[in-house]
Amino acid sequence: MWLPWARCQDGESSGPDQDREKRWAELFDQLDLNKDGRIDIRELRTGLAGRGLSRGSLERIVEAGDTNQDGVLDFEEFTQYLRAHEKQLKLMFRSLDRNNDGKIDVAEIQHCLRSIGVNISLEDATRILLSMDKDGTMTIDWNEWRDYFLFNPITNMEEVARYWKRSMMLDIGEQLTVPDEFTEEEKKSGYVWRQLMAGALAGSVSRTGTAPLDRIKVFRQVHGSTDFKGNVLNSFQYMLKEGGLQSMWRGNGINVLKIAPETAIKFTAYEQIKSMMRGGSETRSLRVHERFVAGSLAGAMAQTAIYPMEVLKTRLTLRKTGQYSGIADCAKQILQREGVAAFYKGYVPNLLSIVPYAGIDLAVYETLKFAWLNRNIGLADPGVMVLVGCGAVSSTCGQLASYPLALIRTRMQAQASVKGAPKLSMLALFRNIVTKEGIAGLYRGISPNLLKVVPAVSVSYVAYEYTRIMLGVDIEGRREGKGKG
User: Fold this and answer.
1) pTM passes above 0.90
2) What is the annotated signal peptide range for this record (predicted)?
3) Is residue 417 a part of any domain in this protein?
4) Which of 12, 130, 297, 370 is the most exposed place for a label (fewest CB within 10 A)?
Protein backbone atom coordinates (compact mmCIF):
# COMPACT_ATOMS: atom_id res chain seq x y z
CA MET A 1 0.00 0.00 0.00
CA TRP A 2 1.45 3.35 -1.03
CA LEU A 3 1.93 5.94 1.69
CA PRO A 4 4.33 8.53 0.23
CA TRP A 5 3.40 11.13 2.86
CA ALA A 6 4.63 8.85 5.68
CA ARG A 7 8.21 9.89 4.95
CA CYS A 8 7.52 13.43 6.18
CA GLN A 9 5.99 12.67 9.54
CA ASP A 10 8.79 13.67 11.87
CA GLY A 11 7.90 17.37 11.65
CA GLU A 12 11.60 18.36 11.82
CA SER A 13 11.72 20.01 8.40
CA SER A 14 12.41 23.74 8.37
CA GLY A 15 9.65 24.24 5.81
CA PRO A 16 6.54 22.30 6.82
CA ASP A 17 4.36 24.06 4.25
CA GLN A 18 6.82 23.25 1.46
CA ASP A 19 7.02 19.64 2.61
CA ARG A 20 3.25 19.45 2.67
CA GLU A 21 2.93 20.83 -0.87
CA LYS A 22 5.61 18.41 -2.07
CA ARG A 23 3.82 15.53 -0.38
CA TRP A 24 0.51 16.49 -2.01
CA ALA A 25 2.20 16.71 -5.40
CA GLU A 26 3.47 13.14 -4.93
CA LEU A 27 -0.01 12.00 -3.91
CA PHE A 28 -1.57 13.66 -6.95
CA ASP A 29 0.96 12.01 -9.24
CA GLN A 30 0.25 8.61 -7.66
CA LEU A 31 -3.51 9.00 -8.12
CA ASP A 32 -3.35 10.44 -11.65
CA LEU A 33 -3.09 7.06 -13.32
CA ASN A 34 -3.45 8.24 -16.92
CA LYS A 35 -1.19 11.28 -16.32
CA ASP A 36 -3.64 13.79 -17.83
CA GLY A 37 -3.28 16.25 -14.95
CA ARG A 38 -6.71 15.43 -13.54
CA ILE A 39 -8.14 12.86 -11.12
CA ASP A 40 -11.59 11.33 -11.67
CA ILE A 41 -13.70 9.05 -9.49
CA ARG A 42 -12.30 5.88 -11.12
CA GLU A 43 -8.71 6.88 -10.38
CA LEU A 44 -9.63 7.72 -6.78
CA ARG A 45 -11.33 4.36 -6.32
CA THR A 46 -8.33 2.49 -7.75
CA GLY A 47 -5.71 4.47 -5.84
CA LEU A 48 -7.57 4.31 -2.52
CA ALA A 49 -8.89 0.75 -2.84
CA GLY A 50 -7.14 -0.42 0.32
CA ARG A 51 -8.70 2.20 2.59
CA GLY A 52 -12.21 0.71 2.81
CA LEU A 53 -13.99 3.84 1.48
CA SER A 54 -17.40 3.62 -0.17
CA ARG A 55 -18.17 5.07 -3.58
CA GLY A 56 -20.30 7.71 -1.86
CA SER A 57 -17.31 8.88 0.19
CA LEU A 58 -15.14 9.20 -2.92
CA GLU A 59 -17.89 11.08 -4.73
CA ARG A 60 -18.11 13.54 -1.81
CA ILE A 61 -14.36 14.17 -2.10
CA VAL A 62 -14.73 15.07 -5.78
CA GLU A 63 -17.87 17.12 -5.14
CA ALA A 64 -16.24 19.09 -2.30
CA GLY A 65 -13.08 19.88 -4.26
CA ASP A 66 -14.52 20.36 -7.75
CA THR A 67 -14.88 24.15 -7.80
CA ASN A 68 -15.35 24.46 -11.58
CA GLN A 69 -17.96 21.65 -11.66
CA ASP A 70 -16.29 19.61 -14.42
CA GLY A 71 -16.51 16.32 -12.50
CA VAL A 72 -12.75 15.90 -11.97
CA LEU A 73 -10.04 17.38 -9.74
CA ASP A 74 -7.05 19.22 -11.15
CA PHE A 75 -3.98 19.79 -8.98
CA GLU A 76 -5.13 23.15 -7.63
CA GLU A 77 -8.56 21.79 -6.68
CA PHE A 78 -6.93 18.71 -5.16
CA THR A 79 -4.62 20.75 -2.92
CA GLN A 80 -7.40 23.18 -1.96
CA TYR A 81 -9.56 20.28 -0.83
CA LEU A 82 -6.74 18.72 1.21
CA ARG A 83 -5.88 22.07 2.80
CA ALA A 84 -9.49 22.64 3.90
CA HIS A 85 -9.91 19.03 5.02
CA GLU A 86 -6.73 19.13 7.11
CA LYS A 87 -8.15 22.15 8.97
CA GLN A 88 -11.28 20.15 9.82
CA LEU A 89 -9.18 17.18 10.91
CA LYS A 90 -7.06 19.47 13.11
CA LEU A 91 -10.17 20.76 14.89
CA MET A 92 -11.41 17.19 15.50
CA PHE A 93 -7.97 16.13 16.73
CA ARG A 94 -7.92 18.99 19.25
CA SER A 95 -11.42 18.11 20.47
CA LEU A 96 -10.25 14.55 21.14
CA ASP A 97 -6.99 15.63 22.82
CA ARG A 98 -8.54 16.60 26.17
CA ASN A 99 -5.25 17.03 28.06
CA ASN A 100 -3.62 18.98 25.21
CA ASP A 101 -0.49 16.81 25.12
CA GLY A 102 -0.59 16.50 21.33
CA LYS A 103 -1.58 12.82 21.48
CA ILE A 104 -4.80 10.82 21.69
CA ASP A 105 -4.96 7.83 24.01
CA VAL A 106 -7.51 5.07 24.62
CA ALA A 107 -9.31 6.94 27.42
CA GLU A 108 -9.79 9.99 25.19
CA ILE A 109 -11.27 7.83 22.42
CA GLN A 110 -13.71 6.30 24.91
CA HIS A 111 -14.66 9.68 26.37
CA CYS A 112 -15.26 11.30 23.00
CA LEU A 113 -17.44 8.49 21.67
CA ARG A 114 -19.36 8.28 24.94
CA SER A 115 -20.20 12.00 24.68
CA ILE A 116 -22.00 11.40 21.38
CA GLY A 117 -23.87 8.29 22.50
CA VAL A 118 -21.48 5.56 21.33
CA ASN A 119 -20.34 3.40 24.25
CA ILE A 120 -17.39 1.11 23.61
CA SER A 121 -15.31 -1.11 25.84
CA LEU A 122 -11.63 -0.52 26.65
CA GLU A 123 -10.79 -3.47 24.39
CA ASP A 124 -12.68 -1.97 21.44
CA ALA A 125 -11.09 1.44 22.02
CA THR A 126 -7.66 -0.20 22.04
CA ARG A 127 -8.39 -1.91 18.72
CA ILE A 128 -9.44 1.41 17.21
CA LEU A 129 -6.21 2.99 18.46
CA LEU A 130 -4.06 0.12 17.13
CA SER A 131 -5.55 0.52 13.67
CA MET A 132 -4.14 4.08 13.57
CA ASP A 133 -0.97 3.80 15.70
CA LYS A 134 1.95 3.47 13.26
CA ASP A 135 4.88 3.94 15.64
CA GLY A 136 3.79 1.55 18.41
CA THR A 137 3.49 4.22 21.12
CA MET A 138 -0.12 3.27 21.98
CA THR A 139 -1.13 6.85 21.23
CA ILE A 140 -2.21 8.70 18.09
CA ASP A 141 -0.29 11.85 17.19
CA TRP A 142 -1.42 14.50 14.71
CA ASN A 143 0.48 12.98 11.78
CA GLU A 144 -1.08 9.54 12.34
CA TRP A 145 -4.55 11.04 12.70
CA ARG A 146 -4.16 13.17 9.56
CA ASP A 147 -2.77 10.34 7.41
CA TYR A 148 -5.51 7.94 8.51
CA PHE A 149 -8.40 10.29 7.68
CA LEU A 150 -6.83 12.34 4.90
CA PHE A 151 -8.99 10.75 2.21
CA ASN A 152 -12.09 10.19 4.32
CA PRO A 153 -14.55 13.09 3.89
CA ILE A 154 -15.61 13.20 7.54
CA THR A 155 -16.47 16.60 9.00
CA ASN A 156 -17.33 15.93 12.66
CA MET A 157 -16.86 13.40 15.45
CA GLU A 158 -20.27 11.80 14.87
CA GLU A 159 -19.05 10.72 11.44
CA VAL A 160 -15.79 9.45 12.92
CA ALA A 161 -17.80 7.28 15.32
CA ARG A 162 -19.93 5.89 12.50
CA TYR A 163 -16.84 5.13 10.49
CA TRP A 164 -15.28 3.23 13.39
CA LYS A 165 -18.44 1.31 14.22
CA ARG A 166 -19.78 0.78 10.74
CA SER A 167 -21.41 -2.58 10.02
CA MET A 168 -22.20 -4.53 6.87
CA MET A 169 -25.21 -6.74 6.58
CA LEU A 170 -24.28 -9.83 4.59
CA ASP A 171 -27.00 -12.42 4.08
CA ILE A 172 -26.09 -15.86 2.73
CA GLY A 173 -29.59 -17.31 3.10
CA GLU A 174 -29.02 -18.97 6.48
CA GLN A 175 -29.42 -17.24 9.85
CA LEU A 176 -29.76 -13.49 9.37
CA THR A 177 -27.21 -11.19 11.01
CA VAL A 178 -28.36 -7.76 12.16
CA PRO A 179 -25.78 -4.92 12.45
CA ASP A 180 -24.96 -3.74 15.97
CA GLU A 181 -23.92 -0.47 17.66
CA PHE A 182 -26.32 2.09 16.20
CA THR A 183 -26.29 5.48 17.90
CA GLU A 184 -29.44 7.13 19.26
CA GLU A 185 -29.14 9.75 16.52
CA GLU A 186 -29.12 7.03 13.85
CA LYS A 187 -32.19 5.37 15.37
CA LYS A 188 -34.15 8.63 15.52
CA SER A 189 -33.15 9.75 12.03
CA GLY A 190 -34.44 6.62 10.32
CA TYR A 191 -30.91 5.67 9.21
CA VAL A 192 -31.20 2.29 10.98
CA TRP A 193 -34.26 1.20 9.06
CA ARG A 194 -32.85 2.42 5.77
CA GLN A 195 -29.75 0.33 6.39
CA LEU A 196 -31.84 -2.69 7.43
CA MET A 197 -33.96 -2.27 4.30
CA ALA A 198 -30.82 -2.12 2.16
CA GLY A 199 -29.65 -5.34 3.80
CA ALA A 200 -33.03 -7.00 3.23
CA LEU A 201 -33.04 -6.03 -0.45
CA ALA A 202 -29.46 -7.27 -0.81
CA GLY A 203 -30.44 -10.54 0.86
CA SER A 204 -33.29 -10.94 -1.62
CA VAL A 205 -30.92 -10.59 -4.57
CA SER A 206 -28.37 -12.92 -2.96
CA ARG A 207 -30.91 -15.65 -2.15
CA THR A 208 -32.42 -15.45 -5.63
CA GLY A 209 -28.99 -15.75 -7.22
CA THR A 210 -28.08 -18.86 -5.22
CA ALA A 211 -31.57 -20.45 -5.09
CA PRO A 212 -30.66 -23.41 -7.37
CA LEU A 213 -27.86 -24.48 -5.00
CA ASP A 214 -30.19 -24.02 -2.03
CA ARG A 215 -32.84 -26.25 -3.63
CA ILE A 216 -30.25 -28.95 -4.34
CA LYS A 217 -29.16 -28.77 -0.70
CA VAL A 218 -32.72 -29.25 0.59
CA PHE A 219 -33.34 -32.20 -1.77
CA ARG A 220 -30.17 -33.95 -0.67
CA GLN A 221 -30.93 -33.27 3.00
CA VAL A 222 -34.40 -34.79 2.78
CA HIS A 223 -33.90 -37.66 0.37
CA GLY A 224 -30.43 -38.62 1.56
CA SER A 225 -28.57 -41.15 -0.53
CA THR A 226 -31.67 -43.06 -1.64
CA ASP A 227 -32.79 -40.84 -4.51
CA PHE A 228 -29.73 -38.72 -5.14
CA LYS A 229 -26.71 -40.85 -5.73
CA GLY A 230 -23.76 -39.06 -7.19
CA ASN A 231 -22.64 -35.46 -7.06
CA VAL A 232 -24.24 -32.03 -7.15
CA LEU A 233 -24.34 -32.04 -10.95
CA ASN A 234 -26.45 -35.23 -10.97
CA SER A 235 -28.93 -33.64 -8.55
CA PHE A 236 -29.11 -30.55 -10.75
CA GLN A 237 -29.80 -32.66 -13.84
CA TYR A 238 -32.56 -34.61 -12.03
CA MET A 239 -34.45 -31.45 -11.00
CA LEU A 240 -33.94 -29.87 -14.41
CA LYS A 241 -35.47 -32.92 -16.06
CA GLU A 242 -38.43 -33.05 -13.63
CA GLY A 243 -39.52 -29.42 -13.81
CA GLY A 244 -37.38 -27.45 -16.25
CA LEU A 245 -35.06 -24.53 -15.57
CA GLN A 246 -37.65 -22.47 -13.69
CA SER A 247 -38.11 -25.28 -11.16
CA MET A 248 -34.67 -24.47 -9.75
CA TRP A 249 -36.22 -21.41 -8.09
CA ARG A 250 -39.06 -23.26 -6.33
CA GLY A 251 -39.40 -22.03 -2.76
CA ASN A 252 -37.41 -18.86 -3.44
CA GLY A 253 -40.46 -16.59 -3.25
CA ILE A 254 -41.26 -17.43 0.37
CA ASN A 255 -37.52 -17.44 1.20
CA VAL A 256 -37.33 -13.81 0.07
CA LEU A 257 -40.65 -12.79 1.67
CA LYS A 258 -39.54 -13.86 5.13
CA ILE A 259 -36.45 -11.60 5.15
CA ALA A 260 -38.31 -8.37 6.00
CA PRO A 261 -40.35 -9.62 9.00
CA GLU A 262 -37.40 -11.61 10.32
CA THR A 263 -35.12 -8.56 10.13
CA ALA A 264 -37.63 -6.26 11.81
CA ILE A 265 -38.44 -8.69 14.63
CA LYS A 266 -34.83 -9.64 15.25
CA PHE A 267 -33.60 -6.06 15.41
CA THR A 268 -36.46 -4.88 17.65
CA ALA A 269 -36.03 -7.84 20.00
CA TYR A 270 -32.24 -7.36 20.06
CA GLU A 271 -32.58 -3.73 21.13
CA GLN A 272 -35.07 -4.62 23.89
CA ILE A 273 -32.90 -7.47 25.22
CA LYS A 274 -29.79 -5.25 25.27
CA SER A 275 -31.73 -2.62 27.20
CA MET A 276 -32.83 -5.24 29.77
CA MET A 277 -29.27 -6.51 30.15
CA ARG A 278 -27.96 -3.00 30.83
CA GLY A 279 -30.56 -2.53 33.56
CA GLY A 280 -30.47 1.03 34.87
CA SER A 281 -27.13 1.79 33.20
CA GLU A 282 -27.98 2.71 29.61
CA THR A 283 -24.41 3.88 28.98
CA ARG A 284 -22.83 0.50 29.77
CA SER A 285 -21.35 -1.34 26.78
CA LEU A 286 -22.25 -4.99 26.41
CA ARG A 287 -19.41 -7.47 26.38
CA VAL A 288 -18.94 -9.96 23.54
CA HIS A 289 -20.61 -12.84 25.40
CA GLU A 290 -23.55 -10.58 26.35
CA ARG A 291 -24.00 -9.53 22.74
CA PHE A 292 -23.88 -13.20 21.75
CA VAL A 293 -26.63 -14.08 24.26
CA ALA A 294 -28.73 -11.09 23.16
CA GLY A 295 -28.26 -12.01 19.49
CA SER A 296 -29.17 -15.66 20.10
CA LEU A 297 -32.32 -14.76 22.05
CA ALA A 298 -33.36 -12.23 19.40
CA GLY A 299 -32.76 -14.84 16.71
CA ALA A 300 -34.89 -17.36 18.62
CA MET A 301 -37.76 -14.85 18.90
CA ALA A 302 -37.58 -13.98 15.22
CA GLN A 303 -37.51 -17.66 14.24
CA THR A 304 -40.49 -18.42 16.47
CA ALA A 305 -42.53 -15.71 14.77
CA ILE A 306 -41.67 -16.58 11.17
CA TYR A 307 -41.16 -20.36 11.54
CA PRO A 308 -44.36 -21.30 9.61
CA MET A 309 -42.77 -19.55 6.64
CA GLU A 310 -39.70 -21.79 7.06
CA VAL A 311 -41.93 -24.87 6.82
CA LEU A 312 -43.68 -23.47 3.75
CA LYS A 313 -40.31 -22.73 2.17
CA THR A 314 -39.17 -26.35 2.61
CA ARG A 315 -42.44 -27.80 1.26
CA LEU A 316 -42.47 -25.45 -1.74
CA THR A 317 -38.80 -26.21 -2.46
CA LEU A 318 -39.51 -29.96 -2.50
CA ARG A 319 -42.79 -29.80 -4.43
CA LYS A 320 -43.19 -31.56 -7.72
CA THR A 321 -44.69 -29.97 -10.83
CA GLY A 322 -48.35 -29.16 -10.26
CA GLN A 323 -48.40 -30.12 -6.57
CA TYR A 324 -49.21 -26.61 -5.29
CA SER A 325 -50.52 -23.60 -7.18
CA GLY A 326 -48.72 -21.17 -4.85
CA ILE A 327 -47.89 -20.21 -1.28
CA ALA A 328 -51.52 -19.87 -0.16
CA ASP A 329 -52.48 -23.24 -1.67
CA CYS A 330 -49.52 -24.94 0.03
CA ALA A 331 -50.49 -23.45 3.42
CA LYS A 332 -54.12 -24.50 2.91
CA GLN A 333 -53.23 -28.11 2.08
CA ILE A 334 -50.87 -28.43 5.06
CA LEU A 335 -53.53 -27.01 7.40
CA GLN A 336 -56.24 -29.35 6.08
CA ARG A 337 -54.16 -32.54 6.08
CA GLU A 338 -51.84 -32.08 9.05
CA GLY A 339 -53.25 -29.34 11.26
CA VAL A 340 -51.67 -26.24 12.80
CA ALA A 341 -48.91 -28.27 14.53
CA ALA A 342 -47.36 -29.05 11.13
CA PHE A 343 -46.22 -25.43 10.82
CA TYR A 344 -43.84 -25.97 13.75
CA LYS A 345 -42.31 -29.30 12.80
CA GLY A 346 -38.56 -29.20 13.33
CA TYR A 347 -38.87 -26.15 15.58
CA VAL A 348 -36.70 -27.55 18.41
CA PRO A 349 -33.63 -28.50 16.31
CA ASN A 350 -34.00 -25.17 14.52
CA LEU A 351 -33.77 -23.26 17.80
CA LEU A 352 -30.86 -25.39 18.97
CA SER A 353 -28.95 -24.66 15.76
CA ILE A 354 -29.10 -20.89 16.34
CA VAL A 355 -26.68 -21.00 19.29
CA PRO A 356 -23.72 -22.82 17.66
CA TYR A 357 -24.20 -20.95 14.38
CA ALA A 358 -24.42 -17.47 15.94
CA GLY A 359 -21.68 -18.13 18.50
CA ILE A 360 -19.11 -19.58 16.13
CA ASP A 361 -19.95 -17.12 13.35
CA LEU A 362 -19.44 -14.15 15.70
CA ALA A 363 -16.30 -15.57 17.34
CA VAL A 364 -14.57 -16.51 14.07
CA TYR A 365 -15.51 -13.22 12.36
CA GLU A 366 -14.17 -11.06 15.19
CA THR A 367 -11.05 -13.24 15.56
CA LEU A 368 -10.20 -12.96 11.87
CA LYS A 369 -10.94 -9.25 11.67
CA PHE A 370 -8.88 -8.35 14.73
CA ALA A 371 -6.07 -10.69 13.65
CA TRP A 372 -5.89 -8.64 10.45
CA LEU A 373 -5.84 -5.39 12.44
CA ASN A 374 -3.07 -6.68 14.72
CA ARG A 375 -0.96 -7.85 11.75
CA ASN A 376 -1.49 -4.58 9.90
CA ILE A 377 -0.95 -2.03 12.64
CA GLY A 378 -1.12 1.48 11.26
CA LEU A 379 -3.06 0.64 8.11
CA ALA A 380 -6.61 1.73 7.42
CA ASP A 381 -9.65 -0.17 8.62
CA PRO A 382 -10.09 -3.56 6.86
CA GLY A 383 -11.20 -3.01 3.29
CA VAL A 384 -14.20 -4.55 1.61
CA MET A 385 -12.47 -7.75 0.49
CA VAL A 386 -11.05 -8.41 3.97
CA LEU A 387 -14.47 -8.07 5.60
CA VAL A 388 -16.19 -10.14 2.91
CA GLY A 389 -13.51 -12.83 3.33
CA CYS A 390 -13.94 -12.82 7.12
CA GLY A 391 -17.70 -13.09 6.68
CA ALA A 392 -17.42 -16.02 4.27
CA VAL A 393 -15.02 -17.99 6.49
CA SER A 394 -16.94 -17.32 9.72
CA SER A 395 -20.25 -18.25 8.12
CA THR A 396 -18.76 -21.48 6.78
CA CYS A 397 -17.48 -22.41 10.25
CA GLY A 398 -20.87 -21.62 11.76
CA GLN A 399 -22.59 -23.83 9.22
CA LEU A 400 -20.24 -26.75 9.82
CA ALA A 401 -21.11 -26.66 13.53
CA SER A 402 -24.88 -26.30 13.12
CA TYR A 403 -25.46 -28.30 9.93
CA PRO A 404 -26.58 -31.62 11.51
CA LEU A 405 -29.33 -29.79 13.41
CA ALA A 406 -30.33 -27.93 10.25
CA LEU A 407 -30.55 -31.23 8.36
CA ILE A 408 -32.75 -32.82 11.05
CA ARG A 409 -34.97 -29.70 11.06
CA THR A 410 -35.45 -29.90 7.29
CA ARG A 411 -36.28 -33.61 7.37
CA MET A 412 -38.86 -33.07 10.12
CA GLN A 413 -40.40 -30.22 8.14
CA ALA A 414 -40.66 -32.46 5.06
CA GLN A 415 -41.74 -35.76 6.66
CA ALA A 416 -45.38 -35.58 5.57
CA SER A 417 -44.41 -34.78 1.97
CA VAL A 418 -42.18 -37.88 1.62
CA LYS A 419 -44.22 -41.01 0.97
CA GLY A 420 -43.60 -43.82 3.41
CA ALA A 421 -41.40 -41.70 5.63
CA PRO A 422 -41.86 -42.51 9.34
CA LYS A 423 -42.87 -39.59 11.59
CA LEU A 424 -39.88 -39.59 13.91
CA SER A 425 -38.89 -37.32 16.78
CA MET A 426 -35.67 -35.31 16.69
CA LEU A 427 -33.63 -37.87 18.67
CA ALA A 428 -35.14 -40.85 16.81
CA LEU A 429 -34.39 -39.20 13.48
CA PHE A 430 -30.81 -38.50 14.60
CA ARG A 431 -30.28 -42.19 15.55
CA ASN A 432 -31.93 -43.35 12.31
CA ILE A 433 -29.63 -41.20 10.15
CA VAL A 434 -26.47 -42.27 11.99
CA THR A 435 -27.49 -45.98 11.86
CA LYS A 436 -28.36 -46.02 8.14
CA GLU A 437 -25.97 -43.44 6.70
CA GLY A 438 -23.27 -42.99 9.33
CA ILE A 439 -21.95 -39.65 10.60
CA ALA A 440 -21.59 -38.51 6.98
CA GLY A 441 -25.38 -38.68 6.70
CA LEU A 442 -25.67 -35.74 9.08
CA TYR A 443 -23.81 -33.63 6.51
CA ARG A 444 -25.82 -34.73 3.48
CA GLY A 445 -26.19 -31.77 1.10
CA ILE A 446 -23.45 -29.66 2.66
CA SER A 447 -21.41 -29.45 -0.56
CA PRO A 448 -23.93 -27.25 -2.45
CA ASN A 449 -24.40 -25.28 0.77
CA LEU A 450 -20.66 -24.53 0.98
CA LEU A 451 -20.51 -23.83 -2.75
CA LYS A 452 -23.00 -21.01 -2.37
CA VAL A 453 -21.21 -19.20 0.49
CA VAL A 454 -18.70 -17.17 -1.54
CA PRO A 455 -21.08 -16.19 -4.38
CA ALA A 456 -23.87 -15.45 -1.87
CA VAL A 457 -21.67 -13.19 0.27
CA SER A 458 -20.21 -11.47 -2.80
CA VAL A 459 -23.59 -10.91 -4.47
CA SER A 460 -25.05 -9.74 -1.16
CA TYR A 461 -22.29 -7.17 -0.71
CA VAL A 462 -22.55 -5.81 -4.27
CA ALA A 463 -26.35 -5.63 -4.02
CA TYR A 464 -26.04 -3.99 -0.60
CA GLU A 465 -23.76 -1.29 -2.00
CA TYR A 466 -26.20 -0.43 -4.81
CA THR A 467 -29.39 -0.61 -2.72
CA ARG A 468 -27.72 1.49 0.00
CA ILE A 469 -26.94 4.18 -2.59
CA MET A 470 -30.50 3.98 -3.98
CA LEU A 471 -31.92 4.47 -0.48
CA GLY A 472 -29.53 7.35 0.22
CA VAL A 473 -27.49 5.77 3.01
CA ASP A 474 -23.72 6.05 3.00
CA ILE A 475 -21.61 3.42 4.79
CA GLU A 476 -20.44 6.04 7.29
CA GLY A 477 -24.06 6.79 8.18
CA ARG A 478 -24.66 10.00 6.23
CA ARG A 479 -27.32 10.74 3.67
CA GLU A 480 -25.77 10.53 0.20
CA GLY A 481 -25.35 13.70 -1.80
CA LYS A 482 -27.18 14.75 -4.93
CA GLY A 483 -28.28 12.07 -7.27
CA LYS A 484 -28.45 9.48 -4.55
CA GLY A 485 -31.88 10.16 -3.09
Assistant:
1) no
2) none
3) yes
4) 12
Report pLDDT digits (tens) over 13-55: 345 667 778 888 888 888 888 888 888 888 887 887 666 566 6
Q: Does some domain include residue 6? A: no
DSSP run (H or E) holding 247: none
Give the torsion sign (CA, 262, 365, 189, 467).
Answer: negative
**170 domain-assigned:** no
Nearest to 299 by CA among 313, 310, 312: 310
Q: Show the CA angle centred on residue 466, arms to residues 47 and 177, nearest 5°.
A: 105
Which domain CATH number covers 128? Answer: 1.10.238.10
Helices (H) and strands (E) in the chain, counts: 21, 4
- What secondary structure letter does DSSP report for 418? S
Specify the 3-state DSSP secondary structure of 140. Answer: strand
Please provide residue 479's backbone torsions phi and psi, each rounded to the nearest 5 degrees.
Answer: -70, 140
What is the full DSSP assignment across 277-296?
HHTT-TTPPPPHHHHHHHHH
Distance CA 85, CA 292 (A): 39
CB-based contacts of 86, cutoff 8 Å, min separation 6: 146, 150
Domain carrying residue 45: 18-164
Is 366 in the same domain as 281? Answer: yes
Whether 476 is in a domain gets the answer: no
Q: What is the pLDDT of residues 332-374, one digit of tens each?
A: 999 998 899 999 999 999 888 877 776 677 677 767 876 776 6
